Structure to design on (639 residues):
Protein backbone atom coordinates (compact mmCIF):
# COMPACT_ATOMS: atom_id res chain seq x y z
CA UNK A 1 0.00 0.00 0.00
CA UNK A 2 2.88 2.33 0.82
CA UNK A 3 4.17 1.84 -2.70
CA UNK A 4 1.18 3.43 -4.37
CA UNK A 5 1.82 6.59 -2.35
CA UNK A 6 5.42 6.57 -3.52
CA UNK A 7 4.21 6.20 -7.11
CA UNK A 8 1.72 9.04 -6.71
CA UNK A 9 4.19 11.28 -4.95
CA UNK A 10 6.63 10.64 -7.76
CA UNK A 11 4.09 11.65 -10.41
CA UNK A 12 2.94 14.71 -8.52
CA UNK A 13 6.49 15.90 -7.93
CA UNK A 14 7.34 15.54 -11.57
CA UNK A 15 4.21 17.35 -12.73
CA UNK A 16 4.09 20.33 -10.42
CA UNK A 17 2.31 22.73 -12.74
CA UNK A 18 -0.38 20.29 -13.72
CA UNK A 19 -0.92 19.32 -10.11
CA UNK A 20 -1.04 22.94 -9.08
CA UNK A 21 -3.59 23.84 -11.77
CA UNK A 22 -5.85 20.96 -10.86
CA UNK A 23 -5.51 21.78 -7.21
CA UNK A 24 -6.06 25.45 -7.75
CA UNK A 25 -9.36 24.94 -9.54
CA UNK A 26 -10.52 22.72 -6.69
CA UNK A 27 -9.35 25.07 -3.96
CA UNK A 28 -10.77 28.09 -5.74
CA UNK A 29 -14.17 26.44 -6.23
CA UNK A 30 -14.47 25.59 -2.56
CA UNK A 31 -13.05 28.93 -1.46
CA UNK A 32 -15.50 30.95 -3.55
CA UNK A 33 -18.43 28.81 -2.49
CA UNK A 34 -17.65 29.35 1.16
CA UNK A 35 -17.10 33.08 0.72
CA UNK A 36 -20.39 33.42 -1.16
CA UNK A 37 -22.40 31.42 1.32
CA UNK A 38 -20.79 33.26 4.19
CA UNK A 39 -21.63 36.63 2.66
CA UNK A 40 -25.22 35.49 2.28
CA UNK A 41 -25.35 34.28 5.85
CA UNK A 42 -23.75 37.51 7.05
CA UNK A 43 -26.41 39.56 5.34
CA UNK A 44 -29.14 37.35 6.75
CA UNK A 45 -27.73 37.40 10.28
CA UNK A 46 -27.28 41.15 10.08
CA UNK A 47 -30.89 41.72 9.14
CA UNK A 48 -32.12 39.22 11.71
CA UNK A 49 -30.27 41.11 14.39
CA UNK A 50 -32.08 44.28 13.38
CA UNK A 51 -35.17 42.57 14.67
CA UNK A 52 -33.59 41.11 17.74
CA UNK A 53 -34.41 43.97 20.11
CA UNK A 54 -38.08 43.10 19.85
CA UNK A 55 -39.95 39.87 20.24
CA UNK A 56 -40.84 38.77 16.73
CA UNK A 57 -44.47 37.99 17.44
CA UNK A 58 -45.29 41.49 18.57
CA UNK A 59 -47.27 44.47 17.42
CA UNK A 60 -46.52 48.00 18.39
CA UNK A 61 -49.39 50.45 18.33
CA UNK A 62 -49.50 54.16 19.00
CA UNK A 63 -52.22 56.75 18.67
CA UNK A 64 -52.47 59.33 15.91
CA UNK A 65 -55.11 61.66 14.50
CA UNK A 66 -58.18 60.68 12.53
CA UNK A 67 -58.00 61.35 8.81
CA UNK A 68 -61.58 60.34 7.91
CA UNK A 69 -64.72 61.89 9.36
CA UNK A 70 -66.61 59.22 11.26
CA UNK A 71 -70.02 58.99 12.84
CA UNK A 72 -70.67 62.67 12.31
CA UNK A 73 -67.39 63.58 13.93
CA UNK A 74 -64.83 65.66 12.02
CA UNK A 75 -61.43 64.45 11.02
CA UNK A 76 -58.15 65.51 12.62
CA UNK A 77 -59.23 64.54 16.11
CA UNK A 78 -56.43 63.20 18.23
CA UNK A 79 -56.89 59.71 19.61
CA UNK A 80 -55.67 58.88 23.12
CA UNK A 81 -54.91 55.52 24.71
CA UNK A 82 -56.54 55.42 28.12
CA UNK A 83 -56.47 53.07 31.11
CA UNK A 84 -58.96 50.31 30.44
CA UNK A 85 -58.06 50.09 26.75
CA UNK A 86 -55.57 47.25 27.26
CA UNK A 87 -58.11 45.16 29.15
CA UNK A 88 -60.79 45.89 26.55
CA UNK A 89 -58.55 44.90 23.61
CA UNK A 90 -57.39 41.77 25.34
CA UNK A 91 -61.01 40.79 25.95
CA UNK A 92 -61.87 41.32 22.29
CA UNK A 93 -59.00 39.42 20.71
CA UNK A 94 -57.90 36.06 22.00
CA UNK A 95 -54.69 36.23 19.92
CA UNK A 96 -53.37 39.01 22.15
CA UNK A 97 -51.44 37.32 24.95
CA UNK A 98 -50.03 40.41 26.60
CA UNK A 99 -50.70 44.06 26.09
CA UNK A 100 -48.16 46.35 27.62
CA UNK A 101 -48.83 50.06 27.93
CA UNK A 102 -45.76 52.29 27.66
CA UNK A 103 -45.16 55.94 28.44
CA UNK A 104 -42.04 57.50 27.09
CA UNK A 105 -40.64 60.80 28.29
CA UNK A 106 -37.78 61.92 26.10
CA UNK A 107 -34.70 63.96 26.80
CA UNK A 108 -34.23 63.64 30.52
CA UNK A 109 -30.96 64.42 32.23
CA UNK A 110 -29.73 61.79 34.63
CA UNK A 111 -27.07 62.86 37.06
CA UNK A 112 -25.07 61.52 39.95
CA UNK A 113 -22.82 64.12 41.53
CA UNK A 114 -20.87 65.67 38.68
CA UNK A 115 -21.57 62.84 36.22
CA UNK A 116 -24.56 63.17 33.92
CA UNK A 117 -26.05 61.64 30.81
CA UNK A 118 -29.16 61.96 28.70
CA UNK A 119 -31.79 59.32 28.51
CA UNK A 120 -35.51 58.84 27.93
CA UNK A 121 -37.56 57.80 30.92
CA UNK A 122 -39.87 54.98 29.94
CA UNK A 123 -42.76 53.93 32.15
CA UNK A 124 -43.39 50.22 31.83
CA UNK A 125 -45.14 47.28 33.46
CA UNK A 126 -43.38 44.20 34.88
CA UNK A 127 -44.20 42.16 31.74
CA UNK A 128 -42.29 44.56 29.51
CA UNK A 129 -39.24 42.25 29.03
CA UNK A 130 -41.54 39.73 27.35
CA UNK A 131 -41.86 42.06 24.40
CA UNK A 132 -38.44 43.69 24.24
CA UNK A 133 -35.10 42.04 24.61
CA UNK A 134 -34.25 43.64 27.92
CA UNK A 135 -32.34 41.46 30.30
CA UNK A 136 -31.47 42.00 33.93
CA UNK A 137 -28.60 39.62 34.50
CA UNK A 138 -28.31 37.87 37.83
CA UNK A 139 -26.43 39.99 40.32
CA UNK A 140 -27.63 43.17 38.61
CA UNK A 141 -30.76 43.62 40.69
CA UNK A 142 -34.27 43.27 39.31
CA UNK A 143 -36.71 44.72 36.80
CA UNK A 144 -39.80 46.81 37.70
CA UNK A 145 -42.29 44.74 39.75
CA UNK A 146 -45.97 44.90 40.72
CA UNK A 147 -45.26 46.58 44.06
CA UNK A 148 -43.39 49.37 42.25
CA UNK A 149 -46.46 49.93 40.11
CA UNK A 150 -48.97 49.82 42.97
CA UNK A 151 -47.01 52.17 45.20
CA UNK A 152 -45.75 54.31 42.30
CA UNK A 153 -42.25 53.98 43.66
CA UNK A 154 -39.52 56.22 42.37
CA UNK A 155 -37.23 53.45 41.20
CA UNK A 156 -35.37 52.99 37.91
CA UNK A 157 -33.72 50.22 35.97
CA UNK A 158 -30.78 51.68 34.05
CA UNK A 159 -28.79 50.41 31.09
CA UNK A 160 -25.34 49.02 31.80
CA UNK A 161 -23.75 51.81 29.75
CA UNK A 162 -25.70 54.42 31.68
CA UNK A 163 -24.49 52.75 34.86
CA UNK A 164 -20.92 52.95 33.67
CA UNK A 165 -21.21 56.64 32.81
CA UNK A 166 -22.88 57.65 36.05
CA UNK A 167 -21.26 55.39 38.60
CA UNK A 168 -17.95 54.37 37.01
CA UNK A 169 -16.77 51.36 38.97
CA UNK A 170 -19.15 51.60 41.91
CA UNK A 171 -22.19 49.34 41.95
CA UNK A 172 -25.24 51.56 41.34
CA UNK A 173 -27.67 49.21 43.06
CA UNK A 174 -29.52 51.01 45.87
CA UNK A 175 -27.91 54.34 44.92
CA UNK A 176 -29.88 57.37 43.82
CA UNK A 177 -30.01 59.03 40.41
CA UNK A 178 -31.31 62.55 39.96
CA UNK A 179 -33.72 62.82 37.02
CA UNK A 180 -34.73 66.41 36.42
CA UNK A 181 -34.40 67.17 40.16
CA UNK A 182 -36.33 64.11 41.28
CA UNK A 183 -34.37 61.35 42.98
CA UNK A 184 -34.90 57.79 41.80
CA UNK A 185 -33.39 54.72 43.40
CA UNK A 186 -31.59 52.30 41.09
CA UNK A 187 -33.01 48.78 41.56
CA UNK A 188 -31.60 47.07 38.51
CA UNK A 189 -29.20 47.26 35.60
CA UNK A 190 -30.27 45.83 32.26
CA UNK A 191 -28.43 44.85 29.12
CA UNK A 192 -29.58 44.62 25.54
CA UNK A 193 -27.85 44.37 22.20
CA UNK A 194 -28.90 47.86 21.25
CA UNK A 195 -25.67 49.59 20.31
CA UNK A 196 -26.53 52.79 18.55
CA UNK A 197 -29.25 54.56 20.51
CA UNK A 198 -28.94 56.35 23.79
CA UNK A 199 -30.29 53.71 26.13
CA UNK A 200 -33.64 54.02 27.84
CA UNK A 201 -34.14 54.24 31.56
CA UNK A 202 -37.08 52.21 32.80
CA UNK A 203 -39.36 53.23 35.66
CA UNK A 204 -42.79 52.04 36.89
CA UNK A 205 -45.61 53.02 34.55
CA UNK A 206 -47.60 54.57 37.39
CA UNK A 207 -44.70 56.73 38.58
CA UNK A 208 -44.05 58.14 35.11
CA UNK A 209 -47.78 58.61 34.67
CA UNK A 210 -48.04 60.77 37.79
CA UNK A 211 -44.96 62.83 37.03
CA UNK A 212 -45.25 63.38 33.29
CA UNK A 213 -48.74 62.43 32.15
CA UNK A 214 -51.19 63.55 34.76
CA UNK A 215 -54.05 63.39 32.26
CA UNK A 216 -53.77 59.55 32.23
CA UNK A 217 -52.91 58.50 28.77
CA UNK A 218 -50.45 56.03 27.30
CA UNK A 219 -47.95 56.67 24.50
CA UNK A 220 -48.05 53.23 22.98
CA UNK A 221 -49.03 49.62 23.43
CA UNK A 222 -46.73 46.67 22.91
CA UNK A 223 -48.78 43.58 22.13
CA UNK A 224 -47.56 40.01 22.15
CA UNK A 225 -49.48 37.92 19.66
CA UNK A 226 -49.94 34.20 19.68
CA UNK A 227 -50.84 31.86 16.82
CA UNK A 228 -50.78 34.37 13.96
CA UNK A 229 -48.03 33.28 11.65
CA UNK A 230 -48.68 34.52 8.15
CA UNK A 231 -48.58 37.97 6.67
CA UNK A 232 -52.23 37.63 5.65
CA UNK A 233 -53.45 36.61 9.14
CA UNK A 234 -51.53 39.50 10.59
CA UNK A 235 -53.26 41.94 8.27
CA UNK A 236 -56.62 40.52 9.30
CA UNK A 237 -55.74 40.88 12.98
CA UNK A 238 -54.56 44.47 12.50
CA UNK A 239 -57.84 45.30 10.80
CA UNK A 240 -59.86 43.69 13.62
CA UNK A 241 -57.91 45.58 16.29
CA UNK A 242 -58.62 48.84 14.42
CA UNK A 243 -62.31 47.91 14.28
CA UNK A 244 -62.69 47.16 17.95
CA UNK A 245 -60.66 50.18 19.03
CA UNK A 246 -62.60 52.34 16.58
CA UNK A 247 -65.86 51.28 18.22
CA UNK A 248 -64.92 52.78 21.58
CA UNK A 249 -62.91 55.72 20.27
CA UNK A 250 -65.14 56.61 17.32
CA UNK A 251 -62.89 56.24 14.32
CA UNK A 252 -63.28 54.36 11.09
CA UNK A 253 -61.65 50.93 10.76
CA UNK A 254 -60.30 52.19 7.42
CA UNK A 255 -58.58 55.12 9.07
CA UNK A 256 -54.95 54.06 9.20
CA UNK A 257 -53.88 57.35 10.75
CA UNK A 258 -56.07 57.09 13.84
CA UNK A 259 -53.79 54.46 15.27
CA UNK A 260 -50.48 53.36 13.82
CA UNK A 261 -49.59 49.71 13.96
CA UNK A 262 -46.13 48.41 13.38
CA UNK A 263 -46.16 44.70 12.96
CA UNK A 264 -42.78 43.17 13.65
CA UNK A 265 -43.71 39.73 12.39
CA UNK A 266 -45.04 41.01 9.06
CA UNK A 267 -41.87 43.02 8.62
CA UNK A 268 -39.79 40.08 9.63
CA UNK A 269 -41.56 37.68 7.31
CA UNK A 270 -41.29 40.04 4.36
CA UNK A 271 -37.61 40.66 4.97
CA UNK A 272 -37.06 36.98 5.44
CA UNK A 273 -38.75 36.35 2.11
CA UNK A 274 -36.30 38.68 0.43
CA UNK A 275 -33.41 36.99 2.16
CA UNK A 276 -34.58 33.55 1.25
CA UNK A 277 -34.52 34.77 -2.33
CA UNK A 278 -30.99 36.09 -1.88
CA UNK A 279 -29.96 32.81 -0.26
CA UNK A 280 -31.34 30.87 -3.19
CA UNK A 281 -29.51 33.14 -5.59
CA UNK A 282 -26.26 32.71 -3.70
CA UNK A 283 -26.70 28.96 -3.65
CA UNK A 284 -27.25 28.92 -7.39
CA UNK A 285 -24.10 30.96 -7.98
CA UNK A 286 -22.23 28.83 -5.44
CA UNK A 287 -23.26 25.60 -7.11
CA UNK A 288 -22.30 27.17 -10.43
CA UNK A 289 -18.86 27.89 -9.00
CA UNK A 290 -18.65 24.36 -7.75
CA UNK A 291 -19.59 23.01 -11.17
CA UNK A 292 -16.94 25.23 -12.75
CA UNK A 293 -14.46 23.70 -10.32
CA UNK A 294 -15.64 20.19 -11.19
CA UNK A 295 -15.35 20.92 -14.90
CA UNK A 296 -11.87 22.31 -14.31
CA UNK A 297 -10.82 19.18 -12.48
CA UNK A 298 -12.37 16.92 -15.12
CA UNK A 299 -10.66 18.84 -17.87
CA UNK A 300 -7.26 18.59 -16.30
CA UNK A 301 -7.73 14.93 -15.42
CA UNK A 302 -8.70 14.28 -19.02
CA UNK A 303 -5.54 15.96 -20.25
CA UNK A 304 -3.51 14.20 -17.57
CA UNK A 305 -4.68 10.79 -18.63
CA UNK A 306 -4.18 11.64 -22.29
CA UNK A 307 -0.71 12.87 -21.51
CA UNK A 308 0.03 9.75 -19.55
CA UNK A 309 -1.32 7.29 -22.11
CA UNK A 310 2.20 6.43 -23.22
CA UNK A 311 3.41 5.95 -19.67
CA UNK A 312 0.35 3.84 -18.86
CA UNK A 313 1.10 1.78 -21.97
CA UNK A 314 4.63 1.12 -20.71
CA UNK A 315 3.22 0.12 -17.36
CA UNK A 316 0.79 -2.25 -19.06
CA UNK A 317 3.56 -3.81 -21.13
CA UNK A 318 5.52 -4.37 -17.95
CA UNK A 319 2.60 -6.20 -16.40
CA UNK A 320 0.40 -3.62 -14.74
CA UNK A 321 -3.14 -4.91 -14.30
CA UNK A 322 -5.93 -2.65 -15.51
CA UNK A 323 -7.14 -2.29 -11.94
CA UNK A 324 -3.75 -1.13 -10.71
CA UNK A 325 -3.63 1.58 -13.38
CA UNK A 326 -7.13 2.66 -12.55
CA UNK A 327 -6.21 2.77 -8.89
CA UNK A 328 -3.11 4.83 -9.63
CA UNK A 329 -4.93 7.51 -11.59
CA UNK A 330 -7.99 7.69 -9.36
CA UNK A 331 -5.98 7.76 -6.15
CA UNK A 332 -3.85 10.56 -7.53
CA UNK A 333 -7.00 12.46 -8.41
CA UNK A 334 -8.39 11.89 -4.91
CA UNK A 335 -5.18 12.96 -3.23
CA UNK A 336 -5.00 16.18 -5.22
CA UNK A 337 -8.64 17.15 -4.79
CA UNK A 338 -8.63 16.17 -1.12
CA UNK A 339 -5.52 18.15 -0.33
CA UNK A 340 -6.43 21.26 -2.28
CA UNK A 341 -10.10 21.00 -1.37
CA UNK A 342 -9.02 21.06 2.24
CA UNK A 343 -6.78 24.07 1.63
CA UNK A 344 -9.64 25.89 -0.10
CA UNK A 345 -11.99 25.04 2.71
CA UNK A 346 -9.56 26.16 5.42
CA UNK A 347 -8.78 29.37 3.53
CA UNK A 348 -12.49 30.10 3.03
CA UNK A 349 -13.35 29.42 6.65
CA UNK A 350 -10.30 31.36 7.77
CA UNK A 351 -11.23 34.46 5.76
CA UNK A 352 -14.86 34.36 6.82
CA UNK A 353 -13.98 33.88 10.48
CA UNK A 354 -11.54 36.76 10.22
CA UNK A 355 -14.24 38.94 8.71
CA UNK A 356 -16.66 37.83 11.40
CA UNK A 357 -14.28 38.68 14.21
CA UNK A 358 -13.42 42.02 12.60
CA UNK A 359 -17.11 42.87 12.33
CA UNK A 360 -17.84 41.85 15.90
CA UNK A 361 -14.95 43.99 17.18
CA UNK A 362 -15.85 47.00 15.08
CA UNK A 363 -19.53 46.45 15.85
CA UNK A 364 -18.98 48.32 19.11
CA UNK A 365 -17.90 51.45 17.25
CA UNK A 366 -19.90 51.40 14.09
CA UNK A 367 -23.16 50.29 15.55
CA UNK A 368 -25.30 47.51 14.28
CA UNK A 369 -24.01 46.39 10.91
CA UNK A 370 -25.93 44.99 7.99
CA UNK A 371 -23.29 42.24 8.07
CA UNK A 372 -23.13 40.01 11.06
CA UNK A 373 -21.25 36.79 11.65
CA UNK A 374 -20.61 36.02 7.96
CA UNK A 375 -19.68 32.37 8.38
CA UNK A 376 -20.72 29.03 6.95
CA UNK A 377 -21.73 26.08 9.06
CA UNK A 378 -18.97 23.49 9.04
CA UNK A 379 -21.19 20.65 7.72
CA UNK A 380 -21.98 22.72 4.63
CA UNK A 381 -18.33 23.53 4.02
CA UNK A 382 -17.37 19.89 4.50
CA UNK A 383 -20.10 18.55 2.26
CA UNK A 384 -19.25 21.03 -0.50
CA UNK A 385 -15.65 19.82 -0.30
CA UNK A 386 -16.88 16.23 -0.37
CA UNK A 387 -18.92 16.93 -3.51
CA UNK A 388 -15.87 18.33 -5.24
CA UNK A 389 -13.75 15.38 -4.18
CA UNK A 390 -16.32 12.90 -5.45
CA UNK A 391 -16.42 14.87 -8.68
CA UNK A 392 -12.64 14.76 -8.84
CA UNK A 393 -12.71 11.01 -8.43
CA UNK A 394 -15.26 10.61 -11.20
CA UNK A 395 -13.32 13.06 -13.32
CA UNK A 396 -10.27 10.86 -12.92
CA UNK A 397 -12.14 7.60 -13.18
CA UNK A 398 -13.75 7.91 -16.60
CA UNK A 399 -10.69 8.98 -18.59
CA UNK A 400 -8.60 6.46 -16.66
CA UNK A 401 -11.00 3.67 -17.54
CA UNK A 402 -10.76 4.67 -21.16
CA UNK A 403 -6.98 4.71 -20.97
CA UNK A 404 -6.95 1.29 -19.36
CA UNK A 405 -9.00 -0.17 -22.20
CA UNK A 406 -6.53 0.95 -24.84
CA UNK A 407 -4.32 -1.93 -25.96
CA UNK A 408 -0.73 -1.52 -24.80
CA UNK A 409 0.59 -1.37 -28.35
CA UNK A 410 -1.67 1.54 -29.18
CA UNK A 411 -0.64 3.29 -26.01
CA UNK A 412 3.02 2.67 -26.79
CA UNK A 413 2.62 4.09 -30.28
CA UNK A 414 1.14 7.21 -28.76
CA UNK A 415 4.16 9.41 -28.34
CA UNK B 1 9.74 -22.43 -25.83
CA UNK B 2 7.60 -20.63 -28.41
CA UNK B 3 5.23 -22.56 -30.65
CA UNK B 4 3.01 -20.76 -33.15
CA UNK B 5 0.48 -22.83 -35.10
CA UNK B 6 -1.49 -21.23 -37.91
CA UNK B 7 -1.68 -17.74 -36.47
CA UNK B 8 -3.98 -15.37 -38.37
CA UNK B 9 -4.48 -11.70 -37.67
CA UNK B 10 -6.64 -9.23 -39.51
CA UNK B 11 -6.92 -5.55 -38.68
CA UNK B 12 -10.26 -3.89 -39.24
CA UNK B 13 -9.37 -0.27 -39.63
CA UNK B 14 -11.66 0.74 -42.44
CA UNK B 15 -10.94 -1.98 -45.02
CA UNK B 16 -9.89 -5.33 -43.51
CA UNK B 17 -6.15 -5.88 -43.64
CA UNK B 18 -5.02 -9.50 -43.39
CA UNK B 19 -1.61 -9.01 -41.77
CA UNK B 20 -0.66 -12.51 -40.66
CA UNK B 21 -1.73 -15.38 -42.87
CA UNK B 22 -1.08 -18.58 -41.00
CA UNK B 23 2.21 -18.25 -39.18
CA UNK B 24 3.92 -21.42 -37.99
CA UNK B 25 7.05 -20.89 -35.96
CA UNK B 26 9.06 -22.63 -33.31
CA UNK B 27 11.71 -21.09 -31.09
CA UNK B 28 13.68 -23.35 -28.75
CA UNK B 29 14.86 -22.49 -25.27
CA UNK B 30 18.14 -20.60 -25.32
CA UNK B 31 17.86 -19.61 -28.95
CA UNK B 32 18.67 -16.16 -30.29
CA UNK B 33 16.35 -15.62 -33.23
CA UNK B 34 15.90 -12.63 -35.47
CA UNK B 35 12.87 -11.79 -37.53
CA UNK B 36 13.46 -9.80 -40.68
CA UNK B 37 11.05 -8.28 -43.11
CA UNK B 38 10.18 -5.14 -44.96
CA UNK B 39 7.90 -2.64 -43.28
CA UNK B 40 4.30 -3.81 -43.61
CA UNK B 41 5.40 -7.44 -43.73
CA UNK B 42 3.73 -8.16 -40.39
CA UNK B 43 6.86 -8.57 -38.30
CA UNK B 44 5.83 -6.01 -35.70
CA UNK B 45 2.36 -7.55 -35.45
CA UNK B 46 3.96 -10.94 -34.92
CA UNK B 47 6.15 -9.52 -32.15
CA UNK B 48 3.14 -7.89 -30.47
CA UNK B 49 1.30 -11.22 -30.50
CA UNK B 50 4.36 -12.94 -29.08
CA UNK B 51 4.50 -10.28 -26.36
CA UNK B 52 0.79 -10.67 -25.54
CA UNK B 53 0.43 -7.00 -26.35
CA UNK B 54 -2.07 -7.86 -29.06
CA UNK B 55 -4.40 -10.80 -29.65
CA UNK B 56 -4.83 -12.96 -32.73
CA UNK B 57 -7.85 -14.24 -34.63
CA UNK B 58 -7.16 -17.94 -35.10
CA UNK B 59 -4.43 -20.50 -34.47
CA UNK B 60 -2.60 -21.38 -31.27
CA UNK B 61 0.30 -19.75 -29.45
CA UNK B 62 2.11 -21.73 -26.78
CA UNK B 63 4.61 -19.96 -24.58
CA UNK B 64 6.55 -22.36 -22.38
CA UNK B 65 3.76 -24.88 -23.05
CA UNK B 66 1.07 -22.48 -21.85
CA UNK B 67 -1.64 -21.70 -24.38
CA UNK B 68 -1.84 -17.94 -24.77
CA UNK B 69 -5.32 -17.43 -26.12
CA UNK B 70 -8.35 -15.34 -25.19
CA UNK B 71 -6.74 -14.21 -21.98
CA UNK B 72 -8.41 -11.83 -19.59
CA UNK B 73 -6.69 -8.48 -19.15
CA UNK B 74 -5.47 -9.50 -15.73
CA UNK B 75 -4.09 -12.84 -16.91
CA UNK B 76 -2.39 -11.19 -19.87
CA UNK B 77 -0.84 -8.62 -17.54
CA UNK B 78 0.43 -11.35 -15.27
CA UNK B 79 1.99 -13.37 -18.14
CA UNK B 80 3.58 -10.25 -19.59
CA UNK B 81 4.98 -9.44 -16.23
CA UNK B 82 6.41 -12.88 -15.41
CA UNK B 83 7.23 -14.49 -18.76
CA UNK B 84 8.19 -11.70 -21.14
CA UNK B 85 10.79 -8.97 -21.15
CA UNK B 86 10.48 -6.15 -23.66
CA UNK B 87 13.11 -4.03 -25.33
CA UNK B 88 11.83 -1.29 -27.59
CA UNK B 89 13.38 0.84 -30.28
CA UNK B 90 12.34 4.01 -28.46
CA UNK B 91 13.42 2.58 -25.07
CA UNK B 92 10.03 3.37 -23.46
CA UNK B 93 11.45 4.39 -20.13
CA UNK B 94 9.21 6.41 -17.86
CA UNK B 95 10.60 9.91 -18.14
CA UNK B 96 10.05 11.05 -14.57
CA UNK B 97 11.55 7.97 -12.95
CA UNK B 98 15.28 7.51 -12.54
CA UNK B 99 17.14 4.53 -13.96
CA UNK B 100 16.82 2.45 -10.81
CA UNK B 101 13.08 3.10 -10.49
CA UNK B 102 12.56 2.24 -14.15
CA UNK B 103 14.40 -1.03 -13.79
CA UNK B 104 12.49 -1.87 -10.61
CA UNK B 105 9.07 -1.19 -12.12
CA UNK B 106 8.22 -4.77 -13.25
CA UNK B 107 8.83 -5.94 -9.68
CA UNK B 108 6.42 -3.31 -8.39
CA UNK B 109 3.72 -5.20 -10.23
CA UNK B 110 4.83 -8.39 -8.49
CA UNK B 111 4.25 -6.70 -5.13
CA UNK B 112 7.88 -6.95 -4.16
CA UNK B 113 8.87 -4.47 -1.47
CA UNK B 114 10.48 -1.24 -2.52
CA UNK B 115 13.68 -1.94 -0.69
CA UNK B 116 14.13 -5.35 -2.26
CA UNK B 117 13.20 -4.02 -5.70
CA UNK B 118 15.77 -1.28 -5.54
CA UNK B 119 18.54 -3.57 -4.37
CA UNK B 120 17.81 -5.93 -7.28
CA UNK B 121 17.56 -3.03 -9.71
CA UNK B 122 20.96 -1.75 -8.63
CA UNK B 123 22.38 -5.22 -9.11
CA UNK B 124 21.09 -5.40 -12.68
CA UNK B 125 22.24 -1.87 -13.46
CA UNK B 126 25.66 -2.86 -12.19
CA UNK B 127 25.69 -5.78 -14.62
CA UNK B 128 24.94 -3.30 -17.39
CA UNK B 129 27.76 -1.08 -16.16
CA UNK B 130 25.40 1.68 -15.16
CA UNK B 131 25.67 1.64 -11.41
CA UNK B 132 26.80 5.26 -11.23
CA UNK B 133 23.83 6.33 -13.37
CA UNK B 134 21.25 4.68 -11.12
CA UNK B 135 19.80 7.98 -9.96
CA UNK B 136 19.83 9.69 -13.33
CA UNK B 137 16.68 10.43 -15.24
CA UNK B 138 16.38 9.02 -18.78
CA UNK B 139 16.76 12.55 -20.16
CA UNK B 140 20.22 12.69 -18.57
CA UNK B 141 21.45 9.56 -20.35
CA UNK B 142 22.65 8.73 -23.84
CA UNK B 143 20.73 6.42 -26.17
CA UNK B 144 23.01 3.48 -25.44
CA UNK B 145 22.69 4.00 -21.71
CA UNK B 146 18.92 4.22 -22.00
CA UNK B 147 18.81 0.96 -23.95
CA UNK B 148 20.97 -0.73 -21.35
CA UNK B 149 18.55 0.47 -18.65
CA UNK B 150 15.75 -1.04 -20.73
CA UNK B 151 17.64 -4.32 -20.99
CA UNK B 152 18.11 -4.38 -17.23
CA UNK B 153 14.39 -3.75 -16.87
CA UNK B 154 13.60 -6.62 -19.25
CA UNK B 155 15.84 -8.99 -17.30
CA UNK B 156 14.85 -8.13 -13.76
CA UNK B 157 11.68 -10.20 -13.68
CA UNK B 158 13.63 -13.27 -14.96
CA UNK B 159 11.33 -13.83 -17.95
CA UNK B 160 11.14 -16.89 -20.24
CA UNK B 161 11.86 -14.84 -23.34
CA UNK B 162 13.01 -11.38 -24.24
CA UNK B 163 11.39 -9.69 -27.20
CA UNK B 164 13.37 -6.87 -28.76
CA UNK B 165 11.73 -4.62 -31.33
CA UNK B 166 14.45 -2.92 -33.40
CA UNK B 167 16.57 -2.60 -30.24
CA UNK B 168 19.32 -0.74 -32.07
CA UNK B 169 17.13 1.26 -34.42
CA UNK B 170 17.75 4.53 -32.59
CA UNK B 171 21.44 4.02 -31.91
CA UNK B 172 24.65 4.86 -33.78
CA UNK B 173 26.77 2.03 -35.16
CA UNK B 174 29.22 1.92 -32.24
CA UNK B 175 26.51 1.74 -29.57
CA UNK B 176 24.59 -0.68 -31.71
CA UNK B 177 27.40 -3.18 -31.42
CA UNK B 178 27.68 -2.61 -27.67
CA UNK B 179 24.00 -3.34 -27.24
CA UNK B 180 24.18 -6.40 -29.53
CA UNK B 181 27.13 -7.73 -27.53
CA UNK B 182 25.13 -7.28 -24.40
CA UNK B 183 22.13 -9.12 -25.85
CA UNK B 184 24.37 -11.96 -27.04
CA UNK B 185 25.86 -12.20 -23.58
CA UNK B 186 22.40 -12.36 -22.05
CA UNK B 187 21.63 -15.13 -24.51
CA UNK B 188 24.77 -17.02 -23.59
CA UNK B 189 23.56 -17.04 -19.99
CA UNK B 190 20.56 -19.05 -21.18
CA UNK B 191 17.93 -16.46 -22.08
CA UNK B 192 15.77 -16.97 -25.16
CA UNK B 193 15.69 -13.85 -27.36
CA UNK B 194 13.63 -12.82 -30.34
CA UNK B 195 14.92 -9.74 -32.12
CA UNK B 196 12.97 -7.94 -34.80
CA UNK B 197 15.21 -5.97 -37.12
CA UNK B 198 15.57 -4.78 -40.66
CA UNK B 199 19.37 -4.52 -40.47
CA UNK B 200 21.10 -7.47 -42.05
CA UNK B 201 24.30 -7.19 -39.97
CA UNK B 202 22.25 -7.31 -36.77
CA UNK B 203 20.38 -10.37 -37.95
CA UNK B 204 23.63 -12.01 -38.96
CA UNK B 205 24.67 -12.08 -35.31
CA UNK B 206 21.74 -14.30 -34.29
CA UNK B 207 21.41 -18.08 -34.50
CA UNK B 208 18.71 -18.04 -37.11
CA UNK B 209 16.94 -15.50 -39.25
CA UNK B 210 13.23 -15.84 -39.89
CA UNK B 211 12.20 -13.97 -43.02
CA UNK B 212 8.65 -12.77 -43.08
CA UNK B 213 6.97 -11.44 -46.19
CA UNK B 214 3.35 -10.41 -46.76
CA UNK B 215 2.18 -12.15 -43.62
CA UNK B 216 3.76 -15.53 -44.21
CA UNK B 217 7.09 -16.95 -43.16
CA UNK B 218 9.46 -17.42 -46.02
CA UNK B 219 12.99 -18.65 -45.72
CA UNK B 220 14.57 -19.52 -42.37
CA UNK B 221 18.34 -18.99 -42.50
CA UNK B 222 20.48 -20.86 -40.03
CA UNK B 223 23.61 -18.96 -39.04
CA UNK B 224 26.97 -20.09 -37.60
Amino acid sequence: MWDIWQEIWGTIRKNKLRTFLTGFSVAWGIFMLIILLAAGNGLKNGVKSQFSWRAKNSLMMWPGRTSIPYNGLPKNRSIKFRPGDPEYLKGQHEQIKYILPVIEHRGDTLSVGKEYTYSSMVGVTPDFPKSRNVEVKSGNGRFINEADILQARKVVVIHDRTAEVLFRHVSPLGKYVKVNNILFQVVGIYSDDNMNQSPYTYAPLSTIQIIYHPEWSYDSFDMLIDGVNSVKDNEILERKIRESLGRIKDFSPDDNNAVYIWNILTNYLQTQGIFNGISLFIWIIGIGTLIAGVVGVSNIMLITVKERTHELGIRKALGARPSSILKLVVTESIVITLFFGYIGMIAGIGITELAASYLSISGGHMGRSIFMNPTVELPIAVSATAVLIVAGVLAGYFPARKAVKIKPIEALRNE
Amino acid sequence: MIRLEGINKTYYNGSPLHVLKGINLQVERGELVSIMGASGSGKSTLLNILGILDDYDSGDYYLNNVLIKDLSENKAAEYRNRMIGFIFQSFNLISFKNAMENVALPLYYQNISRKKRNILALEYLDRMGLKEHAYHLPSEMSGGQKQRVAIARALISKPQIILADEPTGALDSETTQEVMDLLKEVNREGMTLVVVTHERDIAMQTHKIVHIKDGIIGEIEMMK
